Amino acid sequence: MRRTLITTLFCLAALPAAALDCRGTAPDWSVVVSEASAEFVLGAEKTAMDIPDETEALNDPGTRALTLIGGRTTAILVVSTRACNTRSLSAYLLTQDGTTPILLTGCCTP
Predict the structure, then answer these.
(1) What is the pTM assigned to this prediction?
(2) For the segment 13-34, what is each residue's pLDDT rounded down to a tens digit?
(3) CA-to-CA distance for 7 and 23, rounded, in angstroms?
(4) Integer distance in angstroms from the first to the last C-alpha of the chain?
């Protein structure tokens, strides 16, 4: 358990340089992070996105927010070291559909 936590913290500390695979359901969504870019999929829509900013929570060093910017879509991916189902990280994705805000939850694997 301790080794898994240390590995998870190490991978999370290295974001976005470390690969990260985040997914959720109802609706199905995914964000795959590699280097300073990401691919965001929501339903049938795929969007290539840049990651211009990454912020660590002031009161929780195990939580980071990645700003995702695509051609017509923006999002913020919040990743936490809190365990999530069978994956090792929890994820929250904030995006929008036109002017309607959308909050999605899911899990990530570094």
Answers:
(1) 0.82
(2) 444 446 899 999 999 999 999 9
(3) 20
(4) 16
